[in-house]
Amino acid sequence: MKYSESDITPLTYHVGFVQSHPEMFLPHGHANNGLLLGTMVDQIVTITGSRTTAFRIDDWWGIACATDWIPGTNQKALPDYFQSMIACPEWAVNSVRFEIVLFAFTEELLTLTQQESMLIKGTMPDLKTTARAKQIAENWQRILLFR
């Protein structure tokens, strides 16, 4: 069978696709916070090769990395970045950046840098939680918190 460009329909809502096909992105098609955390850490370490710390603060799950793993071209549009299927060939052939999976299967999600905090989805944790997260690892460049 021969295909042409006109046979391909682009996805318009990436998050909906991930949510309706979890088996393509998660083992056994089921998400839990421990699995999401471990998979995200795996991808970050593969991409950066940098020291990465996984942690929990009460019901928040977090990752701190000594290198900012989010490409500079996506820094200004982080909410769009977390909702887009972006290729990640460093991790595996035909894989995508895992942030979209976090967005699809968590209720609350935010990211912190030394300069700012950005809520991606849901509500911000209390100041005590973000302060504790910032103290977890030394010399971090980006922290991700979710639940």
Properties at a glance:
single chain; alpha+beta; 5-stranded antiparallel beta sheet; 31% helix
Give structural notes:
This protein has 147 residues and is α+β, with helices and mostly antiparallel strands. The chain has one domain. Helix content is 31%, strand content 18%. The protein is built from 5 helices and 5 strands, in the order H-H-E-E-H-H-E-E-H-E. It has helices at residues 14-20, 33-48, 78-82, 99-105, 127-136; strands at 52-57, 60-65, 109-112, 117-121, 142-146. It has a 5-stranded antiparallel sheet with strand order 1-2-5-3-4, sandwiched between helices. Strand 3 and strand 4 (117-121) form a beta hairpin. Helix 1 crosses helix 4. The protein starts with 13 loop residues before the first helix and ends with a strand. The model has no long low-confidence stretch (mean pLDDT 92).
